[in-house]
Specification:
This protein has 411 residues and is mainly β. It has 2 domains: 227 residues, Porin; 159 residues, Porin. It is 11% helix and 50% strand. The chain contains 5 helices and 16 strands. It has an 8-stranded antiparallel β-barrel with strand order 1-2-3-4-5-6-7-8. Strands 9-10-11-12-13-14-15-16 form an 8-stranded antiparallel β-barrel. The longest helix is centred in the first third of the chain and has 22 residues. The protein starts with a helix and ends with a strand.
């Protein structure tokens, strides 16, 4: 919680610094009374309350009391000056911080009371008149203040094994415009904390519930325009720019992706050199890799559909081949192959990537029969994307995090 205060001060200082950098050389000749003059910002405070969707063994009662969380956001409202903003119905985006309690004092002392910092993006789903707007809101960042598993000092925490973890918050939000400056919101949300099996134990934490909050809108340029023309009041909310949609260019492309990652075995999961389970709860780290080939077709301004093949290598599979010592497991036995279908949701140079896949070949059933891969890609050039995604096993159980690059060949 103490760190949260420092983060709040950091964000406030960052906002002041950005404003100073943008307007420190402001001159009367630069003054404009354009419709969307300035920057349309807001500060939003939200409270979250709900229940855990999964209860770790031994924590059923402590987790059954539910969770509490607060978030503070600094956001920007787009105006449609760029075409992608119009295509996405004038989204909002920005930075935020959060602080939470996962349950009773027992939960917070054994698992932790996480805080963190994140980036968020909110896209309107629909508007009703001028007062009501529904958003799909996605926040992704880093969370800390967990108390990780330790075989000697904290063996009771079989939920999550690292001090710093991924933070994910998906939210359906309903916004009401109460005045020129003030909005109120009510929403349904899903929280997820995970490290993608980079540290174990890795059960992950999944929570769902309601949130309520208020948003204060402001235009940072107001303090500067009053020096030039005290009678001019810059708009607090933008006038959305509406232009005809650009012509849709449909095309197909081949996408080649290569990535690497690491995983850690669960306590007691690794085998000794004799092929027996290691009763000392020793955790071992292994490398993973993925090569994927997709055929993707752009069907809409914001959407590509794809289908393809996957080749996986997971070093930790040496612990799952029956009647075989780890050192005797071959490379082929650590190999898995599958096929998948999915989609890519396009937001300017960023794309959300999702695939649902099924295995065609594997030497062990420990990974189940199907998997998912969800993440994002950022365009480094027109042809090359940076790729990060979470691969799961047997559904939604984290398997590993992919860090890689993707090359696109337009057909």
């Amino acid at each position: 919680m103490k760190r949260l205060g420092f983060i709040l001060l950091f964000i406030a200082g960052l906002g002041i610094q950005l404003t100073a950098q943008e307007f420190s050389s402001f001159k009367p000749s630069q003054f404009s009374k354009d419709t969307n003059y300035g920057s349309f910002n807001y500060v939003q405070l939200m409270y979250f309350k709900g229940d855990h969707l999964t209860y770790p063994q031994g924590f059923e009662d402590a987790f059954s009391h539910g969770y509490n969380a607060f978030e503070l956001r600094l956001g920007w409202q787009s105006t449609g000056r760029q075409t992608w903003q119009q295509l996405h119905k004038y989204p909002v985006y920005g930075l935020g911080v959060f602080a939470s309690s996962l349950g009773t004092a027992d939960v917070d002392s054994v698992v932790g009371a996480p805080s963190g910092i994140y980036f968020f993006y909110g896209e309107p789903l629909f508007r009703v008149g001028k007062k009501f707007t529904s958003y799909f809101d996605l926040a992704i960042g880093l969370s800390y203040d967990f108390v990780p598993y330790d075989a000697e000092n904290n063996p009771a925490n079989d939920v999550i094994g690292s001090r710093v973890n991924l933070y994910f918050n998906g939210n359906i939000m309903f916004m009401y415009e109460a005045s020129e400056r003030l909005d109120f919101n009510l929403g349904f949300n899903f929280f997820h904390f995970s490290n993608g099996r980079s540290n174990t134990p890795q059960r992950g934490i999944n929570m769902g519930g309601l949130n309520i909050g208020a948003k204060y809108n402001f235009n940072a340029i107001k303090g500067h325009t009053k020096l030039v023309d005290p009678n001019y009041q810059p708009p607090i909310r933008p006038t959305y720019i509406k232009e005809p949609k650009p012509k849709l260019e449909r095309f197909g492309e081949l996408q080649f992706m290569a990535s690497v990652g690491t995983v850690e075995t669960e306590p007691g999961e690794a085998k000794t050199s004799t092929g027996e389970q290691d009763t000392t709860a020793l955790q071992k780290r292994y490398y993973t890799s993925t090569i994927a080939v997709d055929y993707a077709y752009k069907v809409a301004h914001r959407l590509k559909l794809h289908a393809g093949l996957d080749a996986f290598v997971d070093g930790s599979l040496e612990n799952y081949i029956p009647n075989t010592a780890p050192q005797d497991v071959t490379s082929a036995q650590k190999f898995m192959a599958g096929y998948h279908v999915g989609f890519q949701y396009l937001i300017e140079r960023f794309s959300f990537y999702y695939s649902l896949g099924w295995y065609m070949y594997k030497e062990t059933d420990t990974r189940g029969n199907w998997y998912m891969r969800a993440g994002g890609r950022i365009g480094l050039t027109d042809d090359i994307d940076a790729h990060i995604a979470l691969k799961t096993r047997n559904g939604g159980i984290a398997d590993w995090i992919e860090w890689g690059v993707a090359y696109k060949l337009k057909l």
